[in-house]
Amino acid sequence: YTKNFPLWMSTDPKKNQWKEAVDSFQAGAWDPGLFLDDDGKIFLYHGSSNFYPLYGWEIDRKTLQPIGEHQELIKLHDDIHGWERFGEYNDNNFLSPFIEGAWMNKHHGKYYLQYGAPGTEIRGYGDGVYVSDHPLGPFTYQASNPFSYKPGGFARGAGHGSTYQDVYGNWWHVSTMVVNMKNNFERRIGIWPAGFDQDDLLWSNTAFGDYPQFLPAEKKDHLHGNFTGWMLLNYNKPVQVSSTYGAYSANNAVDEDIRTYWSAATGGPREWIQTDLGSQSTVYAVQINYADQDVDSSFLGKMPGIYHQYILWESSDGTTWNRLVDKSHNQTDIPHEYLELSKPVRTRYLKLENIHMPTGKFAISGFRVFGKGSGEKPDTVKQFLVLRSEKDSRNALIKWFTVNNATGYNIYWGIAPGKLYNNVMVYNDNQYYFKAMDKGRTYYFSIEAFNENGISEKTKPVEVKATNPLP
User: Fold this and answer.
1) Residues of CATH 2.115.10.20 domain(s) within the chain?
2) Which residues belong to CATH 2.60.40.10 in the chain?
3) Which of 422, 412, 417 is nearest to 449 (CA)?
4) How far apart are CA 196 and CA 217, in angstroms?
């Protein structure tokens, strides 16, 4: 919270032309978020602490310095809000939770103060929101919270974000997703369709959020999402590799977890990884996610002049191979390469051949193939139960009968049958211990199954009443 850092300004940020606007910003703000109101006033929201609240301040438009003293605005209530509890399993047994990443939007005359919690490092990192009639409060906790949440799937977490509108009027929420392997705060960026419903509740849609999505070039109904319908074709399917380094086994590349990875014994050319889709399938896109193994710490960040090179092959029989994509002369850094094919390919095997790594060994955290399988989509889930704890209504055990041909499941939940805005993606299991509810609040839940061939019908929403009231 030092007061000697500058504010910079630009009239042409695309050309990276910046100059100092204020030499020493007296707010001394941590995690600052600036907001320009429609009356021309500027406000600053800031804070990052597991002890102090988020603060608000009006900023002088001419001097860009704070006016008066900051005001305390909101703090966490993890004794009530289950999702605000710290820890990978929201158990609070390591640290008290953090509130941070303040962001403000105005919609229909209401001020939406958004915040990240409970900690950058965990998969349940999400964003909540409080609402007020005034820019500095008082603020009221939105009933539907967290509004940005993604604890499952390949890349997890959806916190410390910002909400904005594109040129077509579509709302989006951009947030951070945890990796937490080579650095405690190692993250990636996620972007989700978002919006305000008919009751002015702020929501975001993270369902299939790390699968291919269409980017609309017009006004769209984000509640129905932009999912292409291209399913993951190779989850936990057979893998062959040129070599393996230590315990970084081949199937880590197809286990849908960005934090685990396969590593070859070297970073040299001709190291390869091959995935078997199990049957002939129609491939629309491939995502290649590189991992860092034996990488010098100086490379852990965005660096100019580094590049990846590879060749992607396909085969219908595993013997005769055709070149699908050739990046053997690529000169750009592509740590998370997404390839949408110009024309879908009917095939069974794909092989990724390394040509050049910027540094370290040839390592892959996700060799992900998307398209349409040739079989049947799963049946609707049966015996879907949500068993809410009688001792602590922030918690519930969710169970269901396994669908024989399902790869995974999406559990949807919200505060009304028509407001199931949040979801949790679950692979290879038929239960989930859910700890993100608020005490004293009734919720509704639904579930769908999916595999490489498609998605089942959702179950009818079930009501889950609170078992103990608000304290």
Assistant:
1) 7-209
2) 385-464
3) 412
4) 20
| Per-residue pLDDT tens digits for 68-104 | 999 999 999 999 999 999 988 888 777 899 999 999 9
Split at pLDDT 50, 70, 90, the class of 469 is low
Residue closest to 441 by CA, chosen among 380, 388, 376, 375: 388
Residue with the two structure tokens 């007020």:
132
pTM, entire model: 0.95
Average pLDDT of the chain is 95
**Distances 105 to 34, 131, 202, 204 between C-alpha atoms, Å:** 10, 10, 10, 14
Averaged pLDDT, 32-36: 96
Into which CATH architecture does domain 7-209 fall? 5 Propeller (2.115)
Parallel, antiparallel, or unpaired for β 33-36 and 42-46?
antiparallel
Which pLDDT tens digit goes with each residue over 267-286?
999 899 999 999 999 999 99
Q: Count H helices and E strands in the chain, helices first.
A: 0, 30
Residue 83 gets which letter from DSSP?
Answer: G
CATH level 3 topology of 385-464: Immunoglobulin-like (2.60.40)
* Fold (topology level) of 234-372: Jelly Rolls (2.60.120)
